[in-house]
Amino acid sequence: MQSLYAFKSTESDDLAKDERFLLHSLDSMYDLYLSILALLTELHKKSKNHNEKLQKKLLGSDADKNPNTKFQDNQLLQLIGENKMLQDIIGKRKLNFWDLDFEYVDILFKAIIKSKRYDDYINDSETTFKKDTQFIIDIYSEVIAPNDKLYDYFEDKKLTWVDDLPVVNTTLLKVIRKLKLTSPETALLPNLYKDEEDKEFAKSLLQKTILNNSKFSEEISKKTTNWDTERLASIDGVVLKMALCEFQKFPSIPYKVTINEYLEIAKEYSTPKSSLFINGILDKIVKEYQSEKLHLKTGRGLM
User: Whole-model pTM?
Assistant: First the structure.
């Protein structure tokens, strides 16, 4: 959708540059995932530095001289920090920018140690990998991910990252939940695409939507009275064209699946009334296709 919204070429132009833009934007999602793992590593280092500073206080209390090292000793964070394959990839992609932007690490660390989750964690006498993992999941979900300053930072770093954050956050937590002390290093490095077919689908959807842009625009215009031309050039227009492309060019994708997916996208990125508007048009188109036996779907349970 982002690639099509940014599309400035014509149907007859070479689509290679648009495809490169798409693949680059998808690849940058993986960079976001890796940069968040780098952030967790820096927060882990920060916990060690914090304890060392407390111990060096000249007039420190007994608590300062014997700080609780449970965060510092967190087994999940140790697993992430000691993953050579992960750290090499982060280094090669130059994604450990937290050394330069250390103030964000400081902000997040202070928020973590002030949280009730942190108090409950360090005061729990039992230490297990499962509990260490759950603590990281909890502080990531409740303290790190919702942090406005971190959100603004990612937006400034790369504009598309803000849209990628929900998907990346979900993926990150899913990966962490599955980790074990015996997991291979590759467990922290999931594939960007499910398989090669997944990648080809993204490219094909982009290409076929662009190549049929005029045809889809004309068909959409006929399905509504009092058409708002500004809407066709907006996100709503892009969403409708992508849905038509799936209707017509991807026979294995059920109509219901396509409609539900694009309604969710419209709710997230367009106006409050867009999902109703889009649902009405797509429903009308599907009924017409079915009555005229056009663009029939193949496979089980397809509508």
Answer: 0.84
CA separation for the pair 242, 212 (Å, rounded): 10
How many domains in the chain? Answer: 2
pLDDT of the residue at 299: 63
303 in any annotated domain: no
Q: Among 157, 123, 129, which Cα is nearest to 39's?
A: 157
* pLDDT tens-digit readout, 56-70: 775 556 665 677 899
| In-domain check, residue 169 | yes
Tell me, yes or no, whether 113 lies in a domain: yes
**C-alpha dihedral (215, 216, 221, 222), degrees to nearest 10:** 70
pLDDT at 81: 97
Q: Where do the H-state alpha helices sit in 129-273?
A: 129-139, 148-157, 161-178, 196-211, 213-222, 229-232, 235-249, 255-269
Query: pLDDT of 214-235, one tens digit each?
Result: 999 889 888 866 656 565 558 8
- 229 in the same domain as 173: no
Contacts of 179 (CB under 8 A, 6+ apart): 76, 79, 133, 187, 188
CATH number at residue 239: 1.10.940.10
Residue ranges making up the domain that contains 153: 15-188
Categorise residue 7: left if φ over 0, alpha if ψ from -120 to 50, beta otherwise: beta
Q: Which residue positions in the chain have pLDDT lower than 70?
A: 8-13, 58-65, 224-233, 299-303
Does 206 reside within a domain? no
pLDDT for 221 equals 84
226: helix, coil or strand?
A: coil
In the numeric block, which tokens belong to residue 188?
Answer: 């922290």
> DSSP secondary-structure letter at 144?
I
Q: Are residues 184 and 221 in the same domain?
A: no
- Whether 236 and 228 have beta carbons less than 8 Å apart is answered as no
